[in-house]
């Protein structure tokens, strides 16, 4: 079973982490949220450095692009979002969707603390 964790980001720029605790047969969870707080769920996945990936994280993906006669290394950044249709988390950007190997992605920030990362 994957860990069920959340984090919140408040209007003062403070990130807080929350997780369920098992007490006997029951699971408990306490979460203090305030107006304007952003809630992000843990995806259950980790990046190539072992860092937990949360909804709202900005990930960088490095890949080898081999089209035509010359290949080159490229990279792009995307935001991790929840997809209601596929019932799962996925990275997305304006031109499409991808399924990425975890050994090629790295968490480089999040959309609340580092929105400039998506402007690249």
Could you say which structural class the secondary elements and strand pairing correspond to? mainly beta
What radius of gyration results from the CA coordinates? Answer: 17 Å
Number of strands: 11
Return the domain count: 1
**Which CATH C-level class is it?**
Mainly Beta
Largest sheet: 5 strands, antiparallel
Concise synopsis of the structure shown:
The chain is mostly beta strands and 120 residues long. The chain has one domain (5-119): YopX-like domains (SH3 type barrels, Roll), CATH 2.30.30.290.
Kindly describe this structure.
- With 120 residues, this protein is mainly β.
- The chain has one domain (5-119): YopX-like domains (SH3 type barrels).
- 0% of the residues lie in helices and 56% in strands.
- It has no helices and eleven strands.
- The strands form three sheets. The protein has a five-stranded antiparallel beta sheet with strand order 10-9-8-7-11, with no helix packed on it. A four-stranded antiparallel beta sheet has the order 2-1-5-6, with no helix packed on it. A two-stranded antiparallel sheet has the order 3-4.
- The protein is elongated, with a radius of gyration of 17 Å.
- 12% of the residues are buried.
């Amino acid at each position: 079973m994957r860990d069920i964790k959340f984090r919140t980001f408040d209007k003062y720029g403070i990130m807080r982490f929350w997780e369920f605790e098992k007490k006997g047969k029951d699971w408990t969870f306490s979460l203090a949220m305030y107006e304007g707080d952003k809630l992000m769920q843990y995806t259950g996945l980790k990046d190539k450095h072992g860092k937990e990936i949360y909804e709202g994280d900005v990930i960088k993906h490095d890949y080898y692009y081999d089209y035509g006669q010359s290949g080159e290394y490229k990279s792009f950044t995307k935001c991790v979002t929840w997809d209601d249709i596929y019932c799962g988390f996925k990275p997305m950007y304006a031109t499409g969707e991808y399924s990425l190997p975890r050994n090629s992605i790295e968490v480089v920030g999040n959309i609340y603390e580092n929105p400039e990362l998506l402007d690249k």
